[in-house]
Design goal:
Helix content is 48%, strand content 20%. The protein is an alpha+beta fold and 690 residues long. The longest helix is centred in the middle third of the chain and has 77 residues, at 411-487.
């Protein structure tokens, strides 16, 4: 039996990898050499095809510029001819003969003139090359378009047809766009009024009189179908396709003329790239979309394989200088020599990939041999993980780790095994300490929970007391109000003034008790809070509406102009009821201060504005202002003789609960200004239904 070849096994893993790397070096070097050669060859082929594509695009661009220069030259000649003798504007015979002569020289499709009164003369070249005279003049009879044949000498021949119901002034795009621009320009692409199936673009120039009044418009049309025929001739010696498109994807011309126009419901319309679904046009559409992201420069040339053939596809902007925002889309098939060279380059790529794959297979076999000791470490680690996740791990924290690595496993792995064993021992010691810390945390959590239960019980008891007080108070308020109203009715015995004063006193004191209970309830609500995303502007407007409904504020006018003009939503996190109670307290405090102080023109203002990362809601007045002791944060401080201090305390408690701030200052009107600052929040995410 032949002896089996074995790779020496050094003790260190690094040395083993060095031996294997030496065996793999030839495969990797050869593979990368082939790869570099094939990539370089492919890059050269792509560069060659790119030059060939660019040459075709440049040739097409130059020819298109030359073709579209003809209308500019013709218009300039006709303008000078008409300006030299203004009487020529009405000489229909001279105009038609001049247009006929220009048609013999220039490859254009239509030359025309339209006067301001609606008179029109145009010479048309049909798809078959025949020249027709279109005339709506006093000579032909106004109100319809008369179509005449042209003789070989350029004179009007027999009447072929008369097209009725034309617009009186023939206000198509060629005339309207030019009159609006007031200068020579290209029109938008439009369908002819007398032949809706014909689409064209025209270059036109306005004809002005001595007083700068518009006398008419001269123009030259390029018919899209004939422009496509011209493009087909330019591209005929190239395999592929060329398109001219507008920014919205509508075709201007195509090297395959049948694609330019399409029929929709019996009407002829312009085709759009989105409506054409051949593989080659889809590739051109991708290049068009890429060019739209960088409209000022050509898109990078793309290579597309369609039906086994490679095409170079490119989109190039054209016509910006002429006022035409067009794009040239070209797809050019690769030459046969380049296709053969690309196939050989592909074979080189396959050979390089095979060499590199052999190197990877060799590396994989060696790695699997090296990873066997790691598999032993992994198995032991999994057993350790199972012991950690077992329910009894906290009760019996002592863990054990034993991988069973042999001395042939490699010095690095043996050192790793020792390090893991030491880590497990330290974990056992740390776990014992953590158990003691957990017991202490459980004790503190129990204390905190008991304290919260006491607070909740106290809150519920206080709420019950407030409810019990409100019931007799309601009866007391109702009876005192009834007595006062009956004493003021006709035929009822009048109560002595002292009795009436006592009844008013009873009602006022009862109102004070009700207000105090409301403030106590507000404080209780601060204990149990549910915050949600709120629009502070809407909360403030709701509070203002409530405050105006009764009490001292109902007798005063509140200036809420700044609040009403705030259009931006003021998003905050909070409890709407708490915030409303705080705002109502500020408004009532301002109203009471003005009532107790003689002010000629009492004024209260409320505003809302953004201050950095906060929303600031301010309540200001022109009353006596706040004395220094009112700014003290001590609970239940008041400046009123009959006040309890609960109002301002409720406001401070509310702001603490909302992580905000109560800011007290003097208003510009001389009174007090109290501002509530809430942290600003982002708008809530939109909700969707199930």
């Amino acid at each position: 039996m032949a002896a089996r070849f074995q790779i020496p096994r050094p003790k260190r893993l690094a040395n083993r990898l060095a031996v294997v790397s030496a065996l793999q070096l030839l495969l990797v070097t050869g593979g990368f050499s082939l790869l570099s050669y094939s990539l370089g060859r492919r890059s050269g082929l792509e560069l060659s095809e790119g030059y060939r594509q660019n040459a075709s695009v440049v040739d097409l661009s130059i020819r298109l510029s030359s073709k579209l220069n003809y209308p500019i030259w013709i218009n300039a000649l006709n303008l000078n001819w008409l300006k030299a003798d203004p009487a020529r504007q009405r000489n229909v015979a001279a105009i038609s003969e001049r247009f006929w002569t220009q048609m013999q020289v220039f490859p254009v499709d239509y030359i025309n003139i339209g006067l301001a009164d609606g008179a029109f003369v145009g010479l048309e070249r049909t798809d078959e090359g025949e020249l027709l005279l279109n005339e709506d003049t006093p000579r032909s009879g106004r109100g319809s378009m008369a179509v005449y044949a042209m003789s070989a000498e350029g004179r009007r021949g027999a009447l072929l047809e008369r097209i009725p119901e034309m617009s009186p002034t023939h206000e198509e795009a060629w005339y309207v766009d030019t009159a609006k621009a007031g200068k020579p320009s290209w029109s938008s692409i439009y369908a002819w009024e007398d032949q809706p199936e014909v689409f064209s673009i025209s270059y036109n120039a306005p004809l002005f009189g001595p007083d700068r009044s518009l006398q008419g418009v001269v123009g030259v049309d390029m018919v899209l179908s004939q422009l496509s025929t011209w493009l087909q001739g330019v591209w005929k010696n190239r395999e592929g396709m060329a398109l001219i498109v507008e920014p919205n994807g509508d075709l201007v011309a195509s090297s395959m003329p049948e694609l330019t126009l399409t029929k929709q419901g019996g009407n002829v319309e312009r085709a759009n790239l989105r409506e054409l679904s051949t593989p080659l046009i889809r590739a051109l559409s991708q290049a068009f979309q890429a060019a739209a992201r960088q409209p000022d420069q050509p898109s990078p040339a793309l290579r597309a394989r369609i039906n086994g053939q490679v095409f170079t596809v490119q989109a190039s902007p054209w016509g910006q200088a002429e006022g035409l925002n067009w794009t040239l889309l070209t797809a050019l098939a690769a030459s046969p020599s380049n296709a053969a060279a690309e196939r050989s380059s592909t074979l080189a790529l396959v050979a390089a990939a095979a060499a590199l794959t052999g190197a990877v297979v060799l590396i994989g076999r060696q790695i699997r041999a090296l990873l066997e000791p790691l598999a032993q470490l992994e198995s032991a680690s999994r057993e350790l993980s199972s012991a950690l996740s077992a329910p009894s791990a906290t009760a019996a924290p002592n863990l054990h780790f034993q991988s069973g690595l042999s001395s042939a496993s490699g010095e690095e792995l043996i050192a790793l095994d020792d390090a893991i064993s030491e880590l497990v021992e330290r974990y056992n010691a740390l776990t014992a300490n953590l158990q003691e810390a957990q017991e202490r945390e459980r004790f503190r959590d129990a204390q905190t929970l008991a304290l919260l239960k006491d607070k909740l019980r106290s809150s519920l008891q206080a709420a019950a007391v407030a409810h019990e007080i409100n019931q007799p108070l309601s009866v007391l308020l109702l009876n005192s109000q009834l007595l006062l109203e009956r004493s003021q009715q006709l035929g009822s015995p009048e109560l002595p003034e002292s009795w009436q004063a006592q009844l008013h006193s009873i009602r006022q004191e009862a109102d004070r008790v009700v207000l105090t209970i409301e403030k106590m309830r507000a404080l209780l609500r601060n204990v149990q809070t549910e915050h949600q995303r709120l629009d502070l502007r809407e909360v403030a407007q709701s509070a203002l509406l409530y405050a105006r409904s009764g009490g001292p504020l109902s007798r005063l006018t509140v200036d809420s102009t700044e609040l009403d003009q705030q259009r931006e939503a003021a998003w905050v996190d909070g409890d709407a009821v708490q915030i409303q109670i705080a705002i109502v307290n500020l408004l009532r405090n301002a109203a009471e201060a003005l009532s107790n102080h003689s002010t000629n023109a009492p004024w209260i203002g409320i505003s809302l504005q953004r201050e950095g990362e906060h929303w600031c809601l301010s309540v200001s007045d022109n009353g006596p202002g706040l004395p220094p002791q009112a700014l003290d944060s001590t609970p239940l401080q008041t400046t009123k003789a009959t006040g309890s201090g609960l109002g301002l305390f409720v406001v401070r408690t509310t702001m603490d609960n909302h992580h905000g701030e109560l800011r007290c200052a003097s208003s510009p009107q001389g009174g007090a200004s109290l501002a509530l600052l809430f942290p600003a929040q982002a708008a809530p995410l939109p909700t969707t239904g199930d």
